[in-house]
Amino acid sequence: MKKEEIEIVFEDGQAKHAKQLLDFYRQVGAESPYLTFDEAGLGINQEQETRYLKQIQETTNNRLLLASLNGEIIGVASIGAPTNPKTGHVGEIGICLLRRFWGMGLSRVMMEDMIEWAEESPSLRYLRLEVNAENIRAIKLYEHFDFELIGKTPAAMFCQESYQDVLMMGLRVDDSEDQ
Q1: What are the Cα distances from residue 33, in Å, to 16, 99, 131?
Q2: What is the average pLDDT across 55-84?
Q3: Is residue 65 within 8 Å of 8, Cβ to Cβ?
Q4: How far apart are CA 78 and CA 81, in angstroms?
């Protein structure tokens, strides 16, 4: 089998990506049973997405990383944290890819980039995520980056005609010893 070389471009999401991102979320939502949204996407309009993309550029604890091939968004990784000073040091990390790019190592590259960014952030100290307990590939990815299981919500997601558990995982991203 001949291997094809492709050039994937990584860039931070900007307001100009709003429409393309909403289209991506609809497509990836239709392809993956493990996301919290489906083919309807995120349930927001282009104006709302544009506003969100502008807002995150003004913070030190939020980021949206895009992976594109020939101008098409094929993957998104994000860290979102509140602006509240009491909780703004904890970011929620997420990642999703179009199905045809699963198993190529792209998730690993994007996750590594996001964790490095979080480690350099002056605001973030901890990353957390939620993952469907049946999504073994994702769990293995997170474990590779030393995310630890911090909890479980039984029957938290209705997926593939059954109620499935959701695991909560976390990773400390600062070097300080104080808790």
Answers
A1: 28, 11, 12
A2: 94
A3: no
A4: 10
